[in-house]
Specification:
Structural class: alpha+beta
Number of domains: 2
Strand content: 25-35%
Number of helices: 5
Number of strands: 16
Low-confidence stretches: 233-281
Strand order of the largest sheet: 1-2-3-4
Distance between the termini: 62 Å
Helix content: 10-25%
Shape: elongated
Length: about 280
């Protein structure tokens, strides 16, 4: 018989257990389905609470504090509270439910160092993918590979979109080194100046981006070129012979607050995949 819910320790002395407690409701709910629980329960010194008046490995189910949850919040906690199936398969996890066949196959994002390909050089631009932890934006922010980004919108697979936000940035890799103006009007955006504008614009919302993208020549055809002059585009004091209108930043996907996934209207500057929005800001035009 498979034990559906696990305690933190195999053995608890009697002075760490309080048995034969009872709740009339609005106090606890079942972890497996978030339904309100009424009846006998017992508590441990570790803070764990289980159904039944004392531990029964075949019947006891884990309880959590009662809360009114929206459907989207239930999905979040459903993903967050799970149990490893086997130490031999750390990437495959099973929920704390009575369905032993219900698995999550989320994988943690891994930092990745990009290299420029000939295909990207021919296209003149590429896309760079970054992830940040939704509740730790000031601490967790790094670049991932294009392959990792593909599974971001998949349900129960790839990067966990409830825990991580993905930001997709269009990055100019080929073209004139600097902006080309004609009669004070920007005619051809330069690689260096364009990438500096991208860094500046995104850093207003994602402060750590500017600490990662320190070199606008990185991942461009000018990466190994020694600058012959200073760009007129400075991160903290953008100066052009004529102002260049960059437009508004499209709305970026935030954690859902109700039982529907929030989606902003698509426009020429914003794409989204599988119902989970992530922003693509293209300043290469």
């Amino acid at each position: 018989m498979i034990i559906k819910d696990f305690r933190q320790k195999l053995y608890y002395p009697a002075d760490q257990i309080v048995n034969n407690l009872f709740t009339n409701g609005r106090e606890f709910m079942l972890l497996r389905n978030f339904e309100e629980y009424t009846g006998f329960y017992h508590r441990y010194a570790t803070g764990e609470v289980f159904t039944e008046n004392e531990w029964n490995p075949l019947k006891s189910e884990r309880l959590i504090r009662f809360r009114e949850f929206s459907e989207s919040q239930k999905k979040y906690y459903d993903v967050k509270l799970y149990t490893k199936v086997s130490p031999n398969n750390p990437g495959i996890r099973r929920k704390n439910t009575k369905n032993e066949h219900e698995y999550y196959r989320y994988t943690a994002p891994k930092p990745y160092k990009r290299t420029l390909t000939q295909k990207e050089i021919d296209a003149g631009k590429t896309y760079r993918y970054f992830v940040t932890k939704r509740n730790e934006r000031e601490r967790v922010f790094f670049e991932i590979s294009p392959e990792q980004s593909i599974g971001y919108a998949d349900s129960y697979n790839g990067i966990n979109q409830y825990l991580y936000e993905m930001v997709t940035v269009s990055w100019k890799v080929d073209g004139p080194e600097y902006d080309i103006y004609e009669n004070g009007i920007l005619k051809i955006p330069g690689v260096i100046d364009t990438n500096l504008r991208i860094i500046d614009r995104y850093s207003k919302k994602y402060r750590l981006l500017s600490q990662i993208l320190l070199n606008p020549r990185e991942l461009t055809v000018y990466e190994q070129v020694i600058p012959q002059r200073q760009s007129t585009n400075l991160l903290n004091d953008l100066q052009f012979s004529q102002p260049v209108e960059l437009g508004e930043i499209p709305e970026i996907y935030e954690p859902p607050s109700d039982d529907s996934i929030i989606q902003s209207e698509s426009n020429s500057d914003s794409d989204r995949v599988g119902g989970f929005g992530f922003t693509i800001l293209d300043l290469n035009k």
